[in-house]
Amino acid sequence: MGIEYKSKxxxxxVVYAGSDAYGKPLRYYKTVKxxxxxxxxxxxxxxxxxxxxxxxxQSNVRLSEMMDEYxxxxxxKGVHTTTITGYNSIKKKIVESVGxxxxxxxxxxMVDDWIKDLSRNLQPKTVKNIVTFLSAAYQRYVDLEILTxxxxxxxxxxxxxxxERLILKKEDIRPFYAALQDHYEEDPxxxxxxxxxLFCGLRRSEICGLKEENIDVDRRTVHVADARHRTSGxxxxxxxxxxxxxxSILSLPAFVFDDIMExxxxxxxxxxxxxxxxxxxYLILGAYGDPINPDVLYKRxxxxxxxxxxxxxxxxxxxxxxxxMLKWLGRDMVEVSHQLRHSQMSTTMNIYTHLFxxxxxxxxxxxxxxxxxxxx
Length: 376
Prior knowledge:
This protein has helices spanning about 35-60, 65-75, 80-100, 110-120, 125-145, 175-185, 190-200, 205-210, 255-275, 295-305, 315-330, 335-340, 345-350, 365-375, and strands spanning about 5, 10-20, 25-35, 215, 220-225, 230, 235, 250. With about 375 residues, the protein is mainly α.
């Protein structure tokens, strides 16, 4: 019997409950006061029953129940709707591929075999996201002491092969900008979208979430404060930016600011001429004066590229190009990370390490230098 007597009235109870998946003995401890040896033995039996009851409880937790509880915990943390939608999509993939076994009965070998199966049909990054989610769900139950181990910990993930990103080269910037200026009269909203992505590094959802009130005319700045994006057929707004650090005020290059002000003026004139149009609130509008649907921007960008015979790129590729331009202008990793509004420096490092070999800090403002970069 696992009773360690510490003093005349205190003892430590030690219950042995087998071993984990790695062969490490599982022990549960409890220090109690006792009045006699018989009393200590009774308390041990009660504690042993408590431990065994707890283990019985954990043995009944199903994988889906554990994942659902984890998703609910993230909701309580205020995670964005798009992230929750992604979690539910991953949960569906897991249940489809492995069913709904008892969570405690899943072993490390089962996880490794499952990863091999997933890797036959899915990209390494997708597999990593799936396993990371399941591991987080397991770890929450381990932290809550409902489960004793996380079988996903140290799982053998497939090696990720970095895909070459579609970005503009240095010699492409001026032709791309010239095409934007030529295209302004035909589609001013798209031109401003592309300028905000290429010369300010904004994400698509952030651009679509901008309102006229976010433009500070006196300071020539934009306040990135919200995002608009579509997920599962619903338009999501009002949840703020991707991360807290993404909510920030950025200086605008003069040529971008001028195009924005002209766009705002055009929207107001259109609303005055056509009483059926709603009063503009958002910066980027659709054909009927309503906030633009983010999903239409890709096709409009492709038509723009084809019309001017431009290199293929997407909106996020323009954001990556912005990071490259900062490097060309002599900015260091810290400043690039700040301008891209990454929540952690490691994010910048992981994506843009190849840019920074001999980076140095330039003396003038980024916005002014971007003006010079596109100037003839």
